[in-house]
Q: What sequence folds into this?
């Protein structure tokens, strides 16, 4: 089936912009990015849109469709009725560059602030040995394509620009959680997560999980476990006492030299 | 129409879009329904715990969970399975104040309920990608919300209360089997399910470990709790229903509205 769809696309830059109306052809099996490309090809050659793989794996074409953070390439047009207006805007949590392209450098800054994987002293790359059962939990987080839709939808920074300094956002708190669960990471990341990366700002409203195109359970499997680990370290004297008496520190949080 | 002088989605530099959301679905329906359900439940529970009547069916040993354990001298002696060490309570204090405080704390600090009431009562945010109305936001970084980190203690205490409810159930079975027993059983199973599926329980069982391979038993427990954890929301809301139904059934029975359907007398 081919039909003419009504699209409203945000056009503008940092100084000004607004939603502009277009009537554009839609064919069976197409996704929103196909329609945006047809718009570029036929009506608006200067429309700026960031894209790359068209397969939901590069995380480039993040935008908001009818107000919901989504990948343009993974949103099928048959989600919408033929008479429905489809509104496409850039991500609203980040500064706009032009049209549908935003400046996501906030995320790169946050990524740089997280200390890298820290293997135990004396273990060289190539000597890492881990049981599969110990690493499979955090492998879920490696599916992240860094589309930053979770960062975009998180109200902590979306609705409060002033929190961007203190809050790393769900994508990078998930990274900290992944490293903290890593059986060979020797760095204590719990207090850092709370005090330097703003884990306490997260109020677990699960929007990050709802918008993740990879279906990662960010809240249940990364953020809440990290909050519990922070509570172990910072807010629970019984766990602290238990770790001192039973010397469980190495098993619960620390790294172990392979074979030791 | 440039973004200027605002904050959040209207902050300078962001795409200038005048409305708080462009969502076209009924995003307000879920928080509204949650608000109505939780508010209605709280009103019902408040009325019931303050009534101080129709909480015990002596013939079948049915005690409503809203009055368990009954530890005050205001309680009917038969209903006080654990004795009555506390003095008489004035009219506004629930007989089971000791357990109700724990249960309220457990549910208030529960990760599911936090999501529910932050969205539906506090609109922070009301729904995903819908701008919240608050000018500032500090989340759970400071008092009073930093107290949410005490969830584990309420979990321990709530498990004790679930144990008390289980003892109430066993006591009721000493009088035979009726529809009331079955309703109480469903409620107790639900309460254990809700407690065991809790995120804190998941962490205690094994989530805090980095070396599952060295703790096979705890790893197995963590796996079970993780599966149950996937139903935490359903159990959280479902047990509110079973609690209210159990209480209402016992209250109506105690008030003589109808007789218990007996299977084994």
A:
């Amino acid at each position: 089936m081919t039909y003419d769809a009504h699209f409203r696309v945000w056009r503008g830059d940092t100084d000004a912009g607004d939603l502009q109306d277009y009537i554009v052809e839609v064919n069976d099996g197409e996704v929103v990015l196909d329609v945006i490309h047809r718009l570029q090809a036929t009506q608006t050659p200067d429309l700026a849109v960031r894209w790359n793989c068209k397969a939901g794996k590069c995380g480039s074409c993040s935008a908001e469709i009818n107000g919901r953070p989504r990948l343009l390439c993974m949103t099928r047009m048959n989600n919408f009725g033929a008479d429905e207006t489809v509104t496409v805007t850039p991500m609203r949590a980040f500064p706009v560059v032009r049209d549908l392209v935003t400046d996501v450098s906030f995320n790169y800054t946050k990524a740089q602030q997280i200390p890298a994987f820290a293997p135990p002293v004396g273990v060289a790359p190539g000597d890492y040995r881990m049981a599969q059962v110990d690493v499979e939990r955090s492998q879920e987080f490696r599916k992240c394509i860094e589309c930053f839709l979770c960062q975009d939808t998180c109200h902590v920074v979306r609705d409060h620009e002033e929190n961007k300094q203190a809050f790393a956002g769900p994508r990078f708190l998930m990274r900290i959680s992944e490293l903290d669960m890593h059986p060979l990471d020797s760095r204590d990341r719990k207090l850092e997560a709370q005090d330097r990366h703003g884990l306490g700002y997260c109020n677990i409203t699960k929007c990050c999980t709802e918008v993740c195109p990879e279906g990662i359970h960010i809240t249940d499997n990364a953020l809440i476990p990290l909050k519990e680990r922070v509570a172990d370290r910072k807010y629970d004297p019984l766990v602290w006492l238990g770790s001192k008496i039973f010397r469980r520190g190495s098993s619960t949080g620390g790294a172990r030299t392979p074979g030791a | 129409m440039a973004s200027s002088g605002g904050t959040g989605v209207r902050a300078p530099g962001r795409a200038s879009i005048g409305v708080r959301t462009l969502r076209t679905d009924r995003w307000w329906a879920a928080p509204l329904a949650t608000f109505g359900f939780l508010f209605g439940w709280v009103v019902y529970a408040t009325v019931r715990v303050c009534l101080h009547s129709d909480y015990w069916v002596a013939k079948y040993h049915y005690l409503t969970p809203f009055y368990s354990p009954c530890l005050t001298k205001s309680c009917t002696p038969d209903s006080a399975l654990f004795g009555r060490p506390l003095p008489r309570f004035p009219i506004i204090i629930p007989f089971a104040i000791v357990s109700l405080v724990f249960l309220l704390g457990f549910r208030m600090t529960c990760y599911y309920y936090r999501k529910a009431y932050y969205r539906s009562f506090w609109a922070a945010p009301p729904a995903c990608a819908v701008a919240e109305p608050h000018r500032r936001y500090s989340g759970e970084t400071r008092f009073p919300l930093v107290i949410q980190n005490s969830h584990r203690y309420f979990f321990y205490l709530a498990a004790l209360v679930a144990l008390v409810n289980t003892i109430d159930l066993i006591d009721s079975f000493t009088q035979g089997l009726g529809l009331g027993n079955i309703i109480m059983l469903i409620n107790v199973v639900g309460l254990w399910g809700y407690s065991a599926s809790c995120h804190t329980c998941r962490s205690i069982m094994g989530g805090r470990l980095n070396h599952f391979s060295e703790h096979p038993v705890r790893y197995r427990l963590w796996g079970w709790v993780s599966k149950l954890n996937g139903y935490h929301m359903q159990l959280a809301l479902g047990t509110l229903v079973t609690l209210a139904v159990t209480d209402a059934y016992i209250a109506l029975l105690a008030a003589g509205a109808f007789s218990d359907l007996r299977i084994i007398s």
Q: What stands out?
A: Helices of chain B lie at 29-51, 97-109, 111-120, 151-173, 179-196, 199-207, 216-229, 232-254. Strands of chain B lie at 56-57, 62-63, 177-178, 262-264. Chain B is about 50% helix and 5% strand. The longest strand of chain B covers residues 262-264.
